[in-house]
Amino acid sequence: MGSNDNFEQELSRSIRQAKKILGNDCDENEIKKSLLNTRYRGQYRTPVRPVNKKEKQALERFGKSLRRLIVTLQDENLLDYARKRMKVDKLREQLQHVEKLASLPLPRPRPSSRLQRAAVRQSAILLELHNIPRTTSRQGKFCRLAAVLYGDQTADLFEHCRKYQKDNPP
Predict the structure, then answer these.
(1) CB atoms near residue 1 (< 10 Å)
(2) In a domain, 94, yes or no
(3) Within this chain, do residues 64 and 92 fall inside the same structural domain, yes or no?
(4) Which residues span the domain enclosing 34?
(5) N or C end: fewer C-beta atoms under 10 angstroms in the chain?
């Protein structure tokens, strides 16, 4: 079973969860469009710098691997074929870039997430399409649908929903 199958299963599971919230007569294509929109925003964020410890540690591990590769390529016993295929100069440039990124200080932790806000926005759009009022409560349809679109039913998006409701009254 490939990753595409897993994605399709996850997508159909999320659509079923959203249909439970919106009702069975809702437009499944609109739900799918909102899910894909939210997932796309989360998947393709441009990594300008590491934003958490795990990303920083991964960059450090990658830098160590690049250093080991460069040392290996400089070994005189290595076949010329392998040495010609890998450009040591380009690897050194990449290593410098990775080390620069890994040395940057982490940004201040932010309580909000761009992906969570996108899920809330898509949730509001879906509720509006189906003429369902946006009630801002932790167990309300607005927050539960936003959590489904976010990809984690247990996520607490109440504050994001409340802020969206305040900034965009019905």
Answers:
(1) 6
(2) yes
(3) yes
(4) 19-46+111-167
(5) N
The total number of structural domains that make up the chain: 2
pLDDT tens digits, 80-128: 777 777 788 888 999 999 999 889 888 876 655 788 999 999 999 999 9
Tokens describing residue 109: 């932790």
CA distance 47 to 50: 7
The beta-carbon contacts of 24-33 under 8 Å, at least 24 apart in sequence, are 26/126, 26/130, 27/129, 27/130, 30/126, 30/129, 31/126
pTM higher than the cut 0.70: no
CA distance 161 to 52: 25
User: 114-129 vs 3-22: helix axis angle to the nearest 10?
Assistant: 50
Query: C-alpha 31: how far from its chain's center?
Result: 18
